[in-house]
Amino acid sequence: MSGALSRLQSLWKGKGEDASVPVRDWVSTSAGRPTQLQGFDITLVWVVLALMAFGLLMVYSASIALPDNPRFSKYLPTHFLTRHMVAIGFGLTAGLITVQIPVSVWERWAPWVFVVALVLLVAVLIPGIGKVVYGARRWIPLGVMNFQPSELAKFGIALYAANYMMRKMDARENFFQAVTPMAISLAFVGLLLLAEPDMGAFLVIAAIAMGILFLGGVNGRMFLLITLVLVGAFVLMITFSEFRRERIFAYLNPWDEKYAQGKAYQLTHSLIAFGRGEWLGQGLGSSVEKLHYLPEAHTDFLLAVIGEELGFVGVALVIVAFFWLTRRCFLIGRQAIALDRVFAGLYAQGIGIWMGGQAFINMGVNLGALPTKGLTLPLMSFGGSAILMNCVALAVVLRIDLENRQMMRGGRS
After folding, report:
1. For helices 342-366 and 149-167, what crossing angle results, to 10°?
2. Minimum mean pLDDT range among 41-55, 180-194, 340-354
């Protein structure tokens, strides 16, 4: 324990919010005796709540005019606001329940959570079970919300990959023993997601799995080989899919007359929204692009509405918040690994990859830095199952931090 504490002291030294908490306040004077869980990362909780509250406000702003569209004519102006509030309520309730569950339980049940996600990914493809929206079969109607199995798959792959690395720790230098089972799992998930189709979710899931493998110590040459195989697979998917190929061409030249009113329509109007926002924005509620010019303004392109209404300052605050959240997940993971809790540490870092990676892709798409892809902004965009699983995933990270603090007081995790 003393060795772990000394390692943690070196990690905390000069680390922003962690450095502000004296080590003597974290450690029990009666080391070795179990203590009750006390204290939690209040800043992490406030950042998550702030992102969700800001997202709720912007979802309302982005969707308030949708009933003017004949497609949404039967909806009230507060329809999406109400549904998003319900989703946040479910998410916070699920998070409060999840934080009570010991990390050891998640470690034990990790493979089964992944199996449940796979079963639901198969079920959503069955006519009569999966709901088709815009030609994609990605949702299972549950009455109060449409559940998206790919969101559970992101949570499941983080648990499974962390558990997998724990079990394969002694075989990290052997390619077939360390990599093949995970590669097969990823390939199966990829086939199911591409059948929906949902390439964006597969990109995030692959990033989570690959990131955990890398952080878990898989041989660098093996990691490079897997990366090249994945990149090759993506290139082949784009090459043999005319729809995806056209999206790439539209991304490269969005203002071309051929694409501006077609594949690049969303991108061009997103860029117009950012251009109108300038430094301080047009004012909350004053977006023009959300008035049926920019499709999916309350989901995939919520950041564009933020940029138009609140300008560079609003977008910069969102970017800083997600950077802090990602960094905090990694720090909690490092603390757990320093306490020899490898599964907990790898999982927390995997969630950091999820939140940071998906936010990065969504922001890149909105800003025209990446090809258009249907991915929401975590914790903020409209979407019930996404908010629910984001809350559950981050609640487990908060539980890891709670158990880290208990161990540092001399108790047991």
Report:
1. 140
2. 180-194
**Which residues sit opposite 146 in a β-bridge?**
141
pLDDT at 360: 97
The pLDDT tens digits of the residues spanning 298-319 come to 999 999 999 999 999 999 999 9
Higher pLDDT, 17 or 306: 306
Token reading at 98:
């999840």
pTM comes to 0.88
Decide: 212 and 165 in contact? Cβ < 8 Å.
Answer: yes
304 by DSSP, 3-state: which? helix
What pLDDT shows up at residue 2? 44
pLDDT tens-place string over residues 25-69: 333 333 333 334 456 799 999 999 999 999 999 999 999 999 988
Residue 402 tokens, joined: 């709670």
Closest CA to 78 of 103, 90, 58, 60: 60
CB atoms within 10 A of CB 277: 25
Beta-carbon neighbour count of residue 72 at 10 Å?
A: 16
Angle between helices 79-98 and 42-63 (to 10 degrees): 160
Phi and psi (nearest 5°) for 139?
-125, 145
pLDDT at residue 177, rounded to an integer? 66
At residue 147, the 3 state secondary structure works out as strand
Structure token pair of residue 116:
């449940």
CA distances from 357 to 1, 200, 377 (A): 34, 11, 10
In what helix (H) or strand (E) does residue 131 lie, and over which residues does it extend? strand 131-133
The residue to which tokens 């108790």 are assigned: 411
Q: φ, ψ for residue 181 (rounded to 5)?
A: -60, -40
**Using CB atoms within 10 A of its CB, is residue 235 exposed (0-12), middle (13-18) or buried (19+)?**
exposed
